[in-house]
Amino acid sequence: MAYLEVENLRVAFGQKEVLKGVSLAVEKGELVTLLGPSGCGKSTLLRTIAGLEHPNSGKLLLDGQEIQDRAVKERQIGMVFQSYALFPNMTTYENIAFGLRVKKIAKKEIEEKVQQMLALVELTECQHQLVTSLSGGQQQRVALARALIIEPKLLLLDEPLSALDARIRKQLQIKLRQIQQELGMTMIFVTHDQEEAMRISDRVHVLSAGELAQVSTPYELYTQPHNQFVAEFIGDYNRIDGLELNVPLNTKGNMSYFVRPEVIKFVPMPNSVALAVTYQTKQVLGNTVRYHLRTKKHQLIYVDVLNDGKFIQLANHVTLYIQPTDIIAVET
């Protein structure tokens, strides 16, 4: 039995069914993400696990115990929100200590645990400052420490980094993953950002319109999408008409064909498939140069090449080369 099990969970608001029989399992010590576009049901799923929403049907089991009918405070689950939800009139120390004080833990034990948490999130020097004087990244670390200090069985994070700028966001992704691994904490992290999910997760659960579209490791998700939605949502896959590829393909049913930008080459390879295109423009993306091209059927194709400072000089008409094993066929 998995540490957390969600069984056939259904949640509706009025006539609108938001979760349509979702089932998933999370192992102890895992960090998994719920990934999907706005409105797919990922935050509703998180809030239902926390007890903030009540399911119409289905089961929730945490550490072998059914919790779907338990009150929020009885579930032993911590939660971190995008808005931080800190007490503005309290210091960093007081915010982190709040949960322990509510439980009437001894003052000496509170002091020890708060200092441990301050060190863990690297905020010891800010402990006597009002949280309103802290930066967004620091406030989110306070919120994380406040959730962790009560030692929850499970920590839920609802887009906790989405309001931060890109640089701070990446720093906190690394810090969060370090803390999770150091504590062995089981975490579920909601995000709409594909790169964020790939960067921090043990496994990614992709949701689409209230249903699970795929559950995989980040690598498997990127290299082996199970359907058209996942292929188009994850990364920058090129969708190519099967007839233009001029290669025997699986044509059973309605199929779409996808190729990753980094596997397409400008020079022939053994057994490669040729694709005639027209050059459009190029775009420098840090350590990568992205070439924009179009097929005869006007489909836009991206080709990513390592940026070595020497741009490839392309004529107007170009031939691309793709290995058949790099062509991913999915049902539409």
Automatic annotation (TrEMBL):
InterPro entries: AAA+_ATPase (IPR003593), ABC_SmlMolc_Importer (IPR050093), ABC_transporter-like_ATP-bd (IPR003439), ABC_transporter-like_CS (IPR017871), Mo/tungstate-bd_C_term_dom (IPR008995), P-loop_NTPase (IPR027417). The keyword Nucleotide-binding applies. The keyword ATP-binding applies. Residues 4-234 form the ABC transporter domain. Keywords: ATP-binding, Nucleotide-binding, Transport. One of its GO terms (molecular function) is ABC-type quaternary ammonium compound transporting activity. Gene3D superfamilies: P-loop containing nucleotide triphosphate hydrolases. It is an enzyme of class 7 (translocase). Its EC number is 7.6.2.9. This is ABC-type quaternary amine transporter.
